[in-house]
Amino acid sequence: MAAGADVPCAVLALLVLGLLAAGGDATAGFIKSPLSQRRLTQDSVELHCEAVGSPIPEIQWWFEGNEPNETSAQLWDGAWQDRVQINATYNLHSTSTISIANLTSDDSGTYECRASNDPDRNHLSKSPKVKWIRSQANVLVIERPVITGQYSSTADKVILSCNMSAPHAVIRGHKWMLGDKILKTDESDSNSYISYTIEGKVEDHSGVYECIYEMNPVAKGNVSIEVQPQVVAYKKSEHGNEGDTGVLTCKSPSYPPVESWVWFKSGQMDPIVNGTGSYIIKSAGNKTELRILKLSIEKDMGDYHCNGTNVKGSGGATVNLRVRSRLAALWPFLGIVAEVLVLVTIIFIYEKRRKPDEVLDGKRWLRSNLPGDAGKSNATNHKDKNVRQRNAN
Q1: What's the angle, vertex CA 358, arms to CA 353 and CA 363, rounded to 5?
Q2: Least confidently predicted of 301-305, 314-318, 344-348
Q3: Cys-Cys link to 202, which of 94, 114, 153, 207 (CB 3.0-4.6 A)?
Q4: How far apart are CA 307 and CA 230, in angstroms?
């Protein structure tokens, strides 16, 4: 059955599934066939095949190279120095996928998916009543082109470039990637030489960049920017309470990854050894962590230095650790209580000094408003008036 015959395969699948539901037998038939592909050397290829029938058919994979006198040979899981992997499932129908890694030019040829549900299909002396059905796909392995990648840098700019020698097909465009992130895409550039400019210092843009040429098959090159570790502290200053566990963290976003981490305490020549005293060090790739158990104000306060090393050199950072007393959390509360007490004391003293004057003022007011005093006051006023009149005469 030719690859790509999806409609007949779907009809056949429905007929077979109907027979299975009715409990009848049905010869094997393909519902998915492998597709022909083009690959480069050192790439991998994957072919998929599915078949139905009652009973459920067995699927085998066979290969025939492009050499004139080469014959077909069955492929097994682990064949070709473990480059071949076959995964098959037999549930409601048969599915099988063959994967071939690290392709070479000798892997070019015809890959055949065979299926059969005849009980005598593997008998050594009996001929099967129903022959194996077959579906083929051609795989063409092309020699990988040479792609030269390099970079140049200035104080504030990095220029990446790739150059492909002897392209095997027409270039329909290209793109630049860093990991899973697409940095630049150009669908109209058919040149074999391409470049990409990054603004900034080279130390801030280390990593493995991919230059991808859109062609059949796709060709990829890479540009590797390697720098010494650019170590930074997660926090330049850490705080902890006495008796708690302090955690100091350093990391390096640079490439290549850090191979070894070392911690030092300011004023000490020897590095901190993991597991000694109250120190625990956990390092993984571009991150390291120093844990200090049961913090002490006298022993643990100070500066700590983390140092990372890779094939390009070393880099470090400093973290300052401050340890507070357990009563530190109560200081704000005690300060508020003290302020309230001082305020209450001031008010109390003020009120105590102010009360005698208020009582005296009250007595004077009463005396001035009594009737007898009022008459006395009027007499005094008349007397003063007469004196003034005599003086005037």
Answers
A1: 140
A2: 344-348
A3: 153
A4: 10
Instruction: Answer whether 271's CB lies under 8 Å from 320's CB.
Output: no
Distances (CA, A) of 273 to 60, 78, 265, 281, 296: 58, 46, 11, 8, 18
Cβ neighbors of 257 (< 8 A, separation 6 or more) are: 285, 286, 310
Q: Domains of the chain, with CATH numbers?
A: 26-142 (2.60.40.10), 147-225 (2.60.40.10), 232-324 (2.60.40.10)
Read off the amino acid at residue 96: S
Q: Which tokens hold the place of 41?
A: 């050397």
Q: For 131-178, how does the pLDDT look when each residue is reduced to its tens digit (9 = 90+)?
A: 899 999 999 999 999 999 999 999 999 999 999 998 989 999 999 999
Q: How many CB atoms lie within 10 A of CB 163?
A: 16
Residues in the chain, total = 393
Q: Residue 133's closest CA among 60, 66, 237?
A: 60
